[in-house]
Amino acid sequence: MAARHRTRRRTAALAVITALAVLPATVGCDAVGKALDCVQTADAIADSVTDLQQAVENAANDPTQTGESLNAIENNLDKIGDKTDNADVNKAVDELSKAVGNVRTAVKNGDTTPDISPVTAAAGELTKVCTP
């Protein structure tokens, strides 16, 4: 009977050790996954900022491109904001969102060549904080 209790204790101890060993790996993978999501979305935002630059340059030909580029950036910002609890990333998202809002307001007020340098700078900061 004593041998059976030792076997159960040993089995229970091995189960606990296994669970403790797997837990950090799971948490680590989750952090890596979030960082990868951040990098991929920041990359998509960088592409959208490039599109915005081209849209502003070509606003006379197709003024709707600017709005579409701003929408794409905002959609990607929502994705990052939903996936992270990192203070630096959230700050960069807020700054980029504010810059996009300022450009949108300028366009609505008739500015055909709005200053998008704050958008570019904020997107660069977001890319920097998302890079692991």
UniProtKB/TrEMBL annotation:
Q: Which UniProt keywords apply?
A: Signal
Taxon lineage: Bacteria, Bacillati, Actinomycetota, Actinomycetes, Kitasatosporales
Its recorded name reads Secreted protein
Which species is this record about? Streptomyces populi
- According to the UniProt entry, where is the signal peptide? 1-27
Give the domain of life.
Bacteria
